[in-house]
Design brief:
The chain is built from 14 helices and no strands. By secondary structure, it is mostly helical.
């Protein structure tokens, strides 16, 4: 005779053997031998960078903000006194500051589209598999790893009245064209600096564009080819939208670098001729070290910081991803 199994009661999980909550796991990890040693090792690795940032970024920024409202000088027997907004009143009535602001705006407006466009073209050229592509990548990137001081000195000799550029112009034109004094003429000094800057930094942004291009899926190009699109249509509807985040990064970095123009000016023109190449950063350094007006230089630096912040915020707003 078959027996019918009796219904069993569902097994209730044992609460005593349940997994401990995350807080208990964290506490047990903290009680684990060696955890404190790992913490100390982590803080020890962070400490050098934190000390350097504190000593060379945060503390100077705080001191610069405070000195902007005083009459401090680099070397002076007079005690430091609080003068309020006197430095800013002097700054906003200084024609040299407005000329520097105009020069920086001119430099930025020209170099941002030209340099980003040239870097994108270079990235498109080397984003292909052909023999010798690594050679061209190295050649394009070589000016970036060269010191800006060295590059400026090299181009300084090329821009001379009897320099390489004028010699080439004279040779090609059979002596009919005589090149100008590129850095000695107010009309050509800033364009000469712009050409140098584009040549030196285009390779860096080429690498950023190249990384963005290689992040686009090849299936999108295959699908567009099946639809019979041209190369221009592929670039317009596949490549360009796929470079949205890369585009924002490139534009922001070029803009910030352009606003901070200093090395080329310091080496090649010292702000001349007739303040045609003076920039905000160069004016701050000249006021702080050559004229020893530390407080006035701090005021210039503070205004420059606010300017960069505003420009970056506006640019970020214009290049944001819209729904």
């Amino acid at each position: 005779m078959a027996t019918v199994p009796l219904p069993t009661r569902p097994r209730v999980p044992d609460t005593q053997h349940a997994a401990p909550p995350p807080s208990d796991a964290t506490n047990s990890a903290r009680r684990r031998p060696g955890f404190r040693r790992e913490q100390l090792s982590g803080w020890g690795m962070i400490a050098p960078a934190a000390v350097l940032l504190l000593a060379f970024v945060f503390i100077p920024a705080i001191l610069g903000f405070g000195l902007a409202f005083t009459n401090a000088r680099l070397i002076s027997p007079r005690p430091i006194e609080f003068v309020g907004l006197d430095n800013f009143s002097r700054l906003f009535t200084d024609p040299t500051f407005y000329r520097a602001l105009l020069n920086v705006a001119y430099f930025t407006v020209v170099i941002v589209p030209v340099q980003s466009g040239l870097a994108l073209v270079m990235a498109l050229l080397i984003n292909k598999k052909f023999r010798g592509v690594n050679f061209f990548r190295t050649v394009y990137f070589l000016p970036v790893v060269t010191s800006m001081v060295v590059v400026s000195l090299l181009w300084l000799f090329m821009y001379r009245k009897d320099g390489l550029i004028n010699e080439i112009l004279s040779t090609v034109s059979f002596g009919l064209v005589t090149g100008p004094d590129w850095l000695g003429d107010p009309n050509t000094a800033m364009p000469a600096i712009i050409v140098l800057s584009i040549w030196q930094a285009a390779g860096f942004h080429m690498i950023i564009w190249l990384a963005g291009l290689q992040g686009i899926s090849g299936e999108l190009y295959e699908a567009s080819q099946l639809d019979g699109t041209s190369r221009w249509q592929q670039f317009r509807y596949v490549t360009w939208p796929g470079l949205f985040h890369t585009r924002s990064l490139v534009l922001v970095t070029i803009t910030i670098q352009a606003l901070g123009l200093f090395d080329q000016i310091s080496v090649m023109t010292q702000g001349g001729p007739m303040d045609s190449t003076t920039t905000i950063v160069y004016e701050a350094v000249r006021s702080g070290y050559r004229q020893q007006e530390t407080s006035y230089a701090s005021a210039i630096s503070l205004v420059f910081f606010v300017l960069v912040l505003i420009v970056s915020a506006v640019q970020r707003h214009l290049t944001r991803e819209k729904d």
